Amino acid sequence: MSIQKIVPSGSTNGKPIKVVATATLGTTFHTAAAGTAGVDEVTMFLSNTDTVDRAVTVEFGGVSSPDNLMKFSVPAGDSILAVPGIPIQNSLAVTVFAAAANVITMWGYVNRIS
Q1: Is residue 95 within 8 Å of 27, Cβ to Cβ?
Q2: Beta strands of the chain (E only): which ranges?
Q3: Phi, psi of 7 (to 5 degrees)
Q4: In the CATH hierarchy, which fold is given to the domain comprising 3-113?
Q5: Which residue from 12, 13, 28, 23 is spatially nearest to 88, judged by alpha carbons?
Q6: Best CA proximity match to 27, nearest among 58, 67, 49, 48
Q7: Which end of the chain is more exposed for a tag (fewer CB within 10 A), N or C?
């Protein structure tokens, strides 16, 4: 078994990703590698740069509620651990949308396990 820590596919060089989407389909955080031979273990933090709490929805490979969704309230001026190492595979995409555009950032890393 091999574990490689990688930058989420939606990030540029590991920088935080600004959540622009305010509805489904959200802004992409990471898309898993194709196939089922390996697993991408996703860890994501959400930061709220606004002065009010903001509702945020994380989508795992789909938009069905509650099957594919995780919902959070991110406190004003704070950060939370939203995705604590959840495994995905087979080109599954993790996307995010928020109640307001351009005030939530997402950042983290992916452990690619093969």
Answers
A1: yes
A2: 3-6, 17-18, 27-31, 39-48, 54-60, 69-74, 79-88, 93-98, 104-113
A3: -75, 140
A4: Jelly Rolls (2.60.120)
A5: 28
A6: 58
A7: N
Residue type at 33 in one-letter notation: A
Q: Are 17 and 107 in contact (CB under 8 A)?
A: yes
Per-residue pLDDT of the chain (114 residues; tens, 9 = 90+): 999 999 999 999 999 999 999 999 999 999 999 999 999 999 999 999 999 999 999 999 988 888 999 999 999 999 999 999 999 999 999 999 999 999 999 999 999 999
SS3 102: coil
Amino acid at 40: D
- Quick one: CA dihedral 51, 82, 89, 111, positive or negative? positive
3-state secondary structure of 53: coil
Q: pTM of the entire structure?
A: 0.95
